[in-house]
């Protein structure tokens, strides 16, 4: 049944809470895909539990992912507060970029007229 009039911000937040657990699957797909597409590390942070001023049930699962889309260490808990710290191999950035040759075909000389003012 549709409600008349615009929905309040609080209503939108509460309605999302009912779907937060299934969205956790997307959480573990989208960020690694972004890391691969952009050839960088991603630190994906999410809290756990229900907040005092709402009904959102946050699903946690904070993690780090490398430029190959692989998790660095374990994914954090879905129910317990955790602080995760990971060592990131920054040399992997160069290795992945050389392997996938994303920058090989770029033409910075063609951009000079756009940036030279």
General description of the model:
The protein is of the alpha+beta class and 117 residues long. It has one domain (9-115): Carbon-nitrogen hydrolase (Nitrilase/N-carbamoyl-D-aminoacid amidohydrolase). The chain is built from four helices and four strands. The chain has helices at residues 9-17, 20-38, 91-100, 108-115, and strands at residues 42-44, 48-50, 57-59, 63-65. The strands form two sheets. Strands 1-4 form a two-stranded antiparallel sheet. A two-stranded antiparallel sheet has the order 2-3. A hairpin with a 6-residue loop joins strand 2 (48-50) and strand 3. The protein is elongated. The N and C termini lie far apart (57 Å).
CATH architecture: 4-Layer Sandwich
Assigned CATH superfamily: Carbon-nitrogen hydrolase
The first-level CATH class is given as Alpha Beta
Task: Give the helices and strands as they follow along the chain.
Answer: HHEEEEHH
Structural class: alpha+beta
* Averaged pLDDT: 80
What about the largest sheet? 2 strands, antiparallel
N- to C-terminal distance: 57 Å
User: Remind me, CATH topology?
Assistant: Nitrilase/N-carbamoyl-D-aminoacid amidohydrolase
Number of helices: 4
User: In terms of per-residue confidence, which ranges show pLDDT below 50 for 5 or more consecutive residues?
Assistant: 1-21
Report Rg.
20 Å
Q: Supply the number of structural domains.
A: 1
What's the overall geometry? elongated
Give the DSSP E fraction (strand runs of 2 or more residues).
5-15%
- How much helix is in the residues? 25-40%
Order of strands in the sheet with most strands: 1-4
Tell me how many strands there are.
4
């Amino acid at each position: 049944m549709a409600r008349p009039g615009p929905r309040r911000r609080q209503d939108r937040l509460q309605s999302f809470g009912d779907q937060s657990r299934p969205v956790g699957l997307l959480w573990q797909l989208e960020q690694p895909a972004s890391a691969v597409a952009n050839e960088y590390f991603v630190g994906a942070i999410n809290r756990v539990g229900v907040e005092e001023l709402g009904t959102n049930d946050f699903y946690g699962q904070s993690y780090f992912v490398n430029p190959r889309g692989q998790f660095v260490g374990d994914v954090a808990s879905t129910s317990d507060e955790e602080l995760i710290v990971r060592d990131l191999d920054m040399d992997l950035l160069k290795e992945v970029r050389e392997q996938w040759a994303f920058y090989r075909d770029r033409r910075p000389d063609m951009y000079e007229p756009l940036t030279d003012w």
